[in-house]
Amino acid sequence: MAIYNEFKDKVALVTGGAGGIGKATVRKFGVNGCKIFICDINDEVVNKTIDEFKKEGIDIDGVSVDIACEESVKSMVDACLKKYGKIDYLVAAAGIYKDRKLTEMSFEEWKQTIDINLNGVFLVTHLVLPQMLERKQGSIIVFGSQAGIRGSALHTHYAATKSAMQGFARSLIYEVAASGVRINCVAPGVIRTPMTMNGSAEKLEKWLETIPMRRFGEPEEVANVIAFLLSDDASYIVGQTIPINGGSVVNT
Length: 252
Ligand SMILES: NC(=O)c1ccc[n+]([C@@H]2O[C@H](COP(=O)([O-])OP(=O)(O)OC[C@H]3O[C@@H](n4cnc5c(N)ncnc54)[C@H](O)[C@@H]3O)[C@@H](O)[C@H]2O)c1
Known about the structure:
Elements: E1 11-15, H1 20-31, E2 35-40, H2 43-55, E3 60-64, H3 70-84, E4 89-92, H4 107-135, E5 138-143, H5 146-150, H6 156-176, E6 181-188, H7 194-197, H8 201-209, H9 219-230, E7 241-244
Parallel strand pairs: 1-2, 1-4, 2-3, 4-5, 5-6, 6-7
Helix pairs in contact: 1-9, 3-4, 4-6
C-alpha cells in the first residue's frame, strides 16, 4: 500500500462520506494523517461514520447536507473551513443511482438526479475553489462512471450526469490548472457499495458476465486511485477520466 506523507495535516472534504467509496476514501486519507470533513444526507449516518473513524484514531468531523441545496452546501463548507481553516482536497462522491426507463420517468425524477449528481458538484466546487486558487494549491476528484462512458440501461438521467463530470473536469482545468489546482474524474465500473449491491442476484450475475476480471471492484480499489490522483505523485495529471472497472470498458 502506498504511503502519502504529504497528506499529513492536509484537509480533505468528502461529500457522500458515509457511502461506500466515500468511507473507503476517508480511511485511506485518514490513515495517512489527513484531517477529514465529511458530509452526507442525514445526521444519523454522518455521526455513525464519524464515531467509527474516531475509534480508528482518524481526525474527522462532519455535518449533514443536502448537496443539491445551495444554502445547505454553503453552511457545510463554512463549517469545514471554520473547523480546519482550509480545504486541500475535495472528493465529490455524493450521488444517487436509480433505475427508470426514460418513457416512465417523471420530470421530478429526472431533476432529482441532475440536482444531486450534477448541480451538487457545481455547488460544492464553486464554494471550495476560491480558497484553493488563493493558496495556489488544491486537488479535486469528481465521479464519472462506466455508465457515462458506454451508457447503461434504465439510466439516461444517471449516465447524463456522469458523462457531464468528464466534461466538467476537462473544462475546469482551463480555469484553474495554471494556478496549481488540479481536477480529475474517476469512472468506476461496478463497485461493491450500497449503491449497487442491493440489486437482484440475477442482475448482479449479468453484470459479472460483462467484467473480464469476473469480480466486482472494492471501494478501496477506487480510494487507492483517488489517493494517487490527489497526491503529489499525480502532479502532471489534470482533466483526465480514469476508468476503474476490471476491464469492462477499455480504450476510452
Ligand atoms: N458503486 C459503483 O459501482 C459506482 C460506479 C460508478 C460511479 N459511482 C459513483 O461513485 C460515487 C460514490 O458512490 P458509492 O458507490 O459510494 O455510493 P453510495 O450510495 O454508497 O454513496 C453515496 C452517498 O451519497 C449520499 N447522498 C445521496 N444523496 C445525497 C444528497 N442529496 N446530499 C448529500 N449526500 C447524498 C448517500 O447518502 C450515500 O452515502 C457516486 O457519485 C456514484 O455515482 C459508483
